[in-house]
Amino acid sequence: MDTFIKGPSKRDVAGMKAALGAVAAGDVVSVLYKTVRFGNFLITGRAHATVLDDLMVGGLNVAAAKKNDQRQPDKDVRAFPAEFTGSFDPEAIAVGELKHGDLVLASFSQEPYGDFVITGVVTEAENDHSYLMVGPWILQTSNAQAPRLLEVQRIATAGAHVAPVPTRRGLVEVAELG
Fold first, then answer.
1. Antiparallel, parallel or unpaired: β 60-63 and 55-57
2. pLDDT tens digits, one per residue of 139-155
3. Beta strands 137-140 and 149-156: pairing type?
4. 119 and 58 Cβ atoms separated by less than 8 Å
């Protein structure tokens, strides 16, 4: 069901450089990230070019500016293009019902990036279990659902999937993206 969230055992940097070189602002792309803090997550949305021509999706760096028709992928990019090969039947859920380790599909909207979707594992803050994130985007704080969150669906509960689950996050948050 969710082997897509693990990604390849080794990054294909040369292949990603060439594939990313063909991406233009506005193209819909899917990128798999792998980080210690947030685990593995897949983000799908429209590519956005910065003033320096770096490529972003959903506010995250994907690749550096184009040089010789190629783009160097960000160090956290595990696979591009990231292709989904499994199937799942997510259930709509209230964000407050989610727990650390649940595998979710969450949609967000944030200008200038537009609408985008993140598939990944929910992480809680160490000392605030109501502070929930998927990837670097906030799902909920102790106050309420994040304003940029449009919808969240649970794919599988914690322990019922094989996606790697990161440890709970320390409270060293600097800026809120979600």
1. antiparallel
2. 998 878 999 999 999 99
3. unpaired
4. no
